[in-house]
Amino acid sequence: MEHTIIFQPSGRRAHVPEGTTILDAARKLGVGIEAVCGDNLVCGKCRVKIMEGEFPKEDITSSIRHVGKVDEKEMEILKKKEKENNVRLACSTSVLGDVLVFVPEATRTGKQIISKAAGKIKVKIKPAVKKYYVELPPPSLEDPYGDFERLCQALEATFNLNKLSIDCRVLQVLPDVLRTGDWKATVTVWQNREIIRVQAGRVETNIGLAIDIGTTTVAGYLTDLITGEVLATESMMNPQVSYGEDVMSRITYCMLNEETGLKELQEAIIEGINTIAKNAAESVELSPEDISEMTLVGNTAMHHILLGINPEYIGLAPFAPALHKSMDIKAERLGIQILPAGNIHILPIIAGFVGADNVGCLLADTPHKRKKMTLLIDIGTNGELVLGNRDKLISCSCATGPALEGAQIEFGMRAAPGAIEKMRIDKKTLEPTYQVIGNDQWSDGQTDMQTKGICGSGIIDAIAEMFKAGIIKKNGRINTDLKSPRIRMEGIVAEYVVAWKRETAIDEDIVVTLKDVRAIQLAKGALYSASLIMMRKLGIKQFDRLAVAGAFGNHIDKVQAMVMGMYPDCDLDKVEFIGNAAGDGARIALLNVDKRREAHALAGKVEYVELALEEDFNDRFGEAMQFPHMFDKFPHVEDLLSPEGEGAS
Amino acid sequence: MEHTIIFQPSGRRAHVPEGTTILDAARKLGVGIEAVCGDNLVCGKCRVKIMEGEFPKEDITSSIRHVGKVDEKEMEILKKKEKENNVRLACSTSVLGDVLVFVPEATRTGKQIISKAAGKIKVKIKPAVKKYYVELPPPSLEDPYGDFERLCQALEATFNLNKLSIDCRVLQVLPDVLRTGDWKATVTVWQNREIIRVQAGRVETNIGLAIDIGTTTVAGYLTDLITGEVLATESMMNPQVSYGEDVMSRITYCMLNEETGLKELQEAIIEGINTIAKNAAESVELSPEDISEMTLVGNTAMHHILLGINPEYIGLAPFAPALHKSMDIKAERLGIQILPAGNIHILPIIAGFVGADNVGCLLADTPHKRKKMTLLIDIGTNGELVLGNRDKLISCSCATGPALEGAQIEFGMRAAPGAIEKMRIDKKTLEPTYQVIGNDQWSDGQTDMQTKGICGSGIIDAIAEMFKAGIIKKNGRINTDLKSPRIRMEGIVAEYVVAWKRETAIDEDIVVTLKDVRAIQLAKGALYSASLIMMRKLGIKQFDRLAVAGAFGNHIDKVQAMVMGMYPDCDLDKVEFIGNAAGDGARIALLNVDKRREAHALAGKVEYVELALEEDFNDRFGEAMQFPHMFDKFPHVEDLLSPEGEGAS
């Protein structure tokens, strides 16, 4: 007996024999579902939502449960709320009737375009961790001096290292390693201070891992500590996403689940980091234990959760973090599976909402070393802004919401194949044409584009184009007076159809709704007004450079973003997209210890501006939400706009 | 139905209903059996040996198994070898017939006289850990500075503490603790360097724990870090005893059980330390977490095993230890359950067989500060000797074996009630009289003394008296030509009956055998010849002080020991019994950080003499094994001997 199975949002469908697991069906259809544990009911990654209740009438024959029962092991993995919502593990759920299965973003695999590629950095190689090869005279009855002291003598004689201590884990294996290696050994020393590893014989490899914990993506850069070269880049979705898309919802999760919430989130990210470390090391045929040190950046909430610090207070006024300064913690104490005695260096943070990721950006972009006035905007779920130059730096944070990353947008999705990333609207016909990631062709309104949703750069394009075509009014409302089948009301909410059902992989029209416009208005309003207040704080009317950082920053269209008013108007050649500068900063700190001191000094130097304390912030914010903000004052922007919108990006 | 149960070595017996567990029977009879887990089949402490095969004929009616079967849970706890030897857990073994149960020393509780009472020490109070009370201004939007930095500002302003770091465990609770205490907090700081605890409000208590890990006994001194007072003394048998009575047998256990041996031994001692910490803290109504720091001494093998270092190489020439220097390790990393961020300071060691316990002795006895020449003998399973003064110190170690502690002696036992501790022998009748611990009366050969065995001081008395009565010849043989029912042959081994069966609690005669004499000869020969070689090394003929340390040292008779030739002859007023100096040293290091530096300097200063390298060691050793060694050269010792042997102890 066969049943129909349909996967959402991909829309893929097939007939499968009764008893097939959902995971097997997905594999057959090429629907990517995460299942790292190999169907062992361990990883819990393959969560899907069974939606037969919402099954299109033509596809479902009855409303009874069309899947097998939850077994005990699955029961343990699923949370109560999940069970109530018909969430199941694809690997252990068998098909017993026609079903519609929704695959949440968090469960989807596939060739995500993670924009967190390592940037080019220029840094003097001066790592915290060095390796030294020594040969020792073996002990004898005349010279029965201890192994450690013997080793120190050799290190002092050969490399002038003195007053070394030794980690207790290394001490445990020291006698055996020295004897196995016939008194020839390679010693890994941290900060010329502590022995963190001893290996028999001569070992040249010396690697570290720089990690950038984003709210959405975690990226790791396996780095050669001798050459500075990036040996492997590994990234993955932040496993905490299943606990909440944005920082505030995760903080809320910790607060609502006082006993275990923080621990769950901490374990999730540590497991994620361990996976990255393992994959990165194994991709170059090394073991995670070969990673001698790790540097970490992340926003303040990610930072606190990683360290197991209650993040509640950074979510409440006055938003004081638990600490600003950088931390050095033994990997073992955090449960991070690199060299157990290896150090985890966590960069300092500036304020409750200006985190170590921002410090990383500063290290990479170095506004503090420039005479030129830089406005640095790191766009994520929060916008973190720094303005200044070598004389003075101020920072602030504004809640942009996750809209600019494609979340909280009706058809928002991350930058992955099938996501609309560029769009143009014909001002006369009001007909759109768009490109999806993974396909160079522009859409024609007829062809099946396998479109799945709209990513961050796509939504900016869409909204800028909708405004230019008059579909969005200055106040953000959708002009329903316009005659087009694409402009319609869905209940009381106006929307614009970007892709007809026939073009999509998800079996429904893809639209931009008034709610989406409002979400983007809030984001761009926040960024823009924050920029203005920062400039006023420093008493300047214009900056010399605009550095836009963030995974997001790589894909947006400079012109469209300026049209929308995401950042103050300036000459386009002043605008630089600096990519994942936070991750670059983590690599810099990994490769050069002096940069850690620089980061520390920087974090202390940057003055934090609390926007909530600015009397006119709400007024400026309200103004900045208008469309388009800058045209009146900087009409030359309009000239830059071409129908193809070939900006400088 | 009732059965007879007899406990060995106490000899207590009773009739109990069928099905009674051995543990319950023991409790009813007042036979002390360790059972810390409360009969939960977890701790495995209540191991007993079922001996119905050796049951006296009049007490047993059949040779079949008279106890219940081993169940699964018990099976897991018992080692293979134990099962073969009829070892069972008293808590889960029920009586199904008449049984004889042997309670091994390791299983016995009861009022052991542990001679590890804290000695008087004189030390300036300057602990590594101090507590500071601060009140902080709460954060505000105008001043949203981080909690840690806020705390540091207050500590700097009030106490001039700067550049503090914070342990990651403290950081985790910092935000909540500060807010709970309404921004008033007590901060525990280690070495004026690291914050290791934050408590809400004002807390005055500041305590530490000094631990002395002996091969046989572990002692802990809970110490007030403000007054220096000992708040509680806790001691227990070293739980490693079940893996081997002496150091070498434990090292062998590690070598034979490569995978798990070391880990088992390490876990055993850590569990022991945790028990001591818990009991000590709870005895003064505190929690183990209130213990802010711990100092530890122990011989090199105990030191290595505690740290999880393979001890194999300290048991093999050239006996090189893994390290000499002191270690500071977070309690959490060792699994020691005091304050998780608290420090464990392990004192330095001198050589493979001269351990941190000896360094502790030096700290307590301070020979390095005296002009007078001191011979310091720390008697344990190994003898550790130091000779010298403020100009020079040399040390050596000799294998005394456990005989002087009462082990490897046929009827040897630790100093506990029922142990013979003093003995005299009438030179004419060859009849002995003795005292047992816990009873002031001298024996008369008839009265039931509830005698159980002979402890260390008893065996020295016995052998010195046997020699003086002519029972032992100069070469150590027992003179079987003498006419006495007490001198007899047991197979091919001669023995002397100290107590008739009727006087004992163990239902058999207590004897001193030729083997016992040999074991003592080896021990005293080693100590004596080591002393001589040390003196020769320093070119001296006499010392000014003889300091005898060790739990053992408290109970021996100065004169008898000198008669036996345990240490070189000297005026009795030069002899000081300094008690558990190792433990005193641990307390000194706990109370004063400068003393840790002193210990470090000391460990480096003491020159180690490897006796095995001395050409004539074997000759000297052979000579020193004779009885009595010193009479020819120092006949005045003979004058000191009185029949009652009232020495100066």
Query: Would you report the number of β strands of chain A?
Result: 27
Rg of chain A, Cα atoms, Å: 27 Å
Mean pLDDT of chain A: 86
Report the total helices of chain A.
17
Percentage of β-strand residues of chain A: 15-25%
State the distance separating the first and last CA atoms of chain A: 54 Å
- Specify the structural class of chain A: alpha/beta
Identify the biggest protein-protein contact and residues per side.
A-B, 48 and 48 residues
Trace the largest sheet of chain A across and list its strands.
12-11-10-13-15-14
Instruction: Point out poorly predicted stretches of chain A.
Output: 53-64, 110-114, 630-649
**Which percent bin holds the helix content of chain A?**
25-40%
Please give the oligomerization state of what you see.
homodimer
How would you characterize the overall build of this protein?
The structure is a homodimer of 649-residue chains. Chain A is an alpha/beta fold and 649 residues long. In chain A, a hairpin with a 6-residue loop joins β19 (419-425) and β20. In chain A, α11 (456-468) crosses α13 (558-564). The longest helix of chain A has 25 residues, at 514-538. Chain A is globular, with a radius of gyration of 27 Å. Chain A starts with a strand and ends in a 9-residue tail after the last helix. The model of chain A is unreliable at 53-64, 110-114 and 630-649 (pLDDT under 50). Chains A and B meet through α4, α5, β14 and α9 of A and α4, α5, β14 and α9 of B.
